[in-house]
Amino acid sequence: MKPHQYHSETEAVRGGTNLSRKNGPLATPIYQTSTFEAATVSDAIDSTKTDLFYTRYGNPTVSVAEGAIAELEGADEARLFASGMGAHTTAIMALVKTGDHIVAQRDIYGGATKFLGEWLPKMGIETTFVDSCDYDQYERAIRPNTRMLYVESPTNPTLKVVDLKKAAEIAKKHNLITMVDSTFATPINTRPMEFGIDLVFHSGTKYFGGHSDLIAGAIAGRRDLMLKIHETRTILGVNMDPHAAWLLLRGIKTLAVRVQRQNENALRIAQFLAQHPKVRQVHYPFLEGHPQRALAMEQMRGGGGMMSFEVDGSGEDARRLIESLRLFTLAVSLGGVDSLVTLPRHSSHAMISEEQRKKMGVSDSLIRLSVGIENAEDLIADLEQGLAKVGSDVASLVSSQ
After folding, report:
1. 109 an active-site residue?
2. Which are the contacts of 284, defined by CB distance < 8 A and separation ≥ 6?
3. What is the mean pLDDT of residues 183-205?
4. Which residues of 231-267 are buried (b: 16+ CB within 10 A; e: fewer)?
5. What number is the average pLDDT over the span 23-46?
6. Is there a contact between 271 and 132 (Cβ–Cβ < 8 Å)?
7. Which helix or strand (DSSP H or E) is residue 340 part of?
8. Of 110, 178, 165, nearest in space to 352 by CA
9. Catalytic site residue 150?
10. Long-range contacts of the stretch 23-28 (C-beta < 8 A, 24+)
């Protein structure tokens, strides 16, 4: 991995751009073109390995955004995709083949679970799911044909924290490729390659974009692996559009300041919820009592803007709570400036079986919050009025009898 040349706040604003003095635009231009002109046949042939050939192969606007992400992650290279799942599926298909085996955490995004557990077997590729923090299980699951160790940290939606250094050591011992979904962490809070991870995945839709106005996926990592991923992306055609890349790049410029505010807001909200009598459990990495808090504080520079909590009640209580919130918008996705709320049972993990959800700890009463950059006291007040409605119907019924 590459060391920081500048602090991450500076890299977010200036990363991927040429810092030499010049006469030119401060904002990266949008190369909204499908193809590029060549003066000669030789020039056309030479351009096939550049971003001035055909936008499915590469594009100058996309290249700047990719450079910014590579710099933030300390990676050799990064590649952008039309969606997070496009990045996830392309990277895995580029690096494993029929007859190979993957070891993956059980606690991961529902779409990743479905792809690994239901789609890859159609291609003759098996996945063994293990408990996120049981590293002996990681070891026991490895077979002679295992090629990849896939992890997510913090996990969606129960915010477990994986020891990235330990996972990387296990993988290196068995000559495996490591890939981590670091969407919840962002490179502002965690740079997984510092702990020996080979590939870092992000749903760029979330924190990189930051304004809920684009769909994007990103992979950053070692040059040899990124070359294979680039070739596969070119064939599958899941590259990013130049205008979306421009929006992404604009979002990245404010990534550090947004994440810092979200870190602060989320910790305050987690502490409030942990003391509330109608909350059974709160999942947040920097909260006292979190089972991996010490690891999180060692591995992360902030706890992130994501958390989940279980109301002390039923699924119907959880539904009543989130439908009563005013500042937390009921919507899927996460990572933007607006605070969002959802029930993972009906959103991020709706596509997997009830049995799988149960193993992950995704109950009907589990609520996930994506904390934005609004005033923390206003957000807490909104949750307080919502929590007042938990069990209110039951209480009214009892008092009337």
Report:
1. yes
2. 159, 266, 267, 270, 290, 303, 307
3. 98
4. ebbbebebbbbbebbbbbbbbbbebbebbbbbbbbbb
5. 92
6. no
7. strand 340-342
8. 110
9. no
10. 28/61, 28/64, 28/65, 28/246, 28/249
Q: What burial class does residue 166 get, using C-beta atoms within 10 Å of its C-beta: 0-12 exposed, 13-18 middle, 19+ buried? A: middle
Peptide bond into 344 cis (omega under 30): no
Catalytic residue among 51, 100, 107, 181: 181
Residue type (1 letter), 309 = F
Question: Mean pLDDT lowest for which of 94-108, 201-215, 356-370?
Answer: 356-370
Task: Give me the catalytic one of 79, 147, 191, 206.
Answer: 206
**Strand order in 306-311's β-sheet?**
279-283, 306-311, 366-370, 340-342, 329-330
Span of 79-83, 266-270, 341-345 with lowest mean pLDDT? 341-345
DSSP codes, 54-101: BTTT--HHHHHHHHHHHHHHT-SEEEEESSHHHHHHHHHHHH--TT-E
For residue 249, what are its two tokens?
Answer: 């790049």
On whether the CB atoms of residues 61 and 69 are closer than 8 A, the answer is no
Q: Any catalytic annotation for residue 278?
A: no
Q: How far apart are CA 117 and CA 152, in angstroms?
A: 16
The span from the CA of 88 to the CA of 311, in Å, is 32
What is the rounded CA–CA span in Å between residue 126 and residue 112?
A: 14
Q: Over the stretch 348-391, which tens digit does the pLDDT of each residue have?
A: 666 666 667 666 667 788 999 999 999 999 999 999 999 998 88
- Is-contact 104 151, C-beta < 8 A? yes
* AA letter at 356: Q
Residue among 120, 123, 84, 85 nearest 103 (CA): 120
- Give alpha helix (H) positions in 275-341: 293-299, 315-324
Instruction: Check if the beta carbon of residue 397 is closer than 8 Å to that of residue 328.
Output: no
Contact 340, 325 (CB under 8 A): no
Res 399: pLDDT: 38
User: d(Cα 171, Cα 222) in Å, to the nearest integer?
Assistant: 15
Which of 31, 109, 150, 284 is catalytic? The answer is 109
Q: Which of 244, 298, 281, 267 is nearest to 365 (CA)?
A: 281
Residue 218 has a pLDDT of 98
Q: Say which of 14, 56, 268, 280 is annotated catalytic.
A: 56
Other C-beta atoms closer than 10 Å to the C-beta of 384 total 13
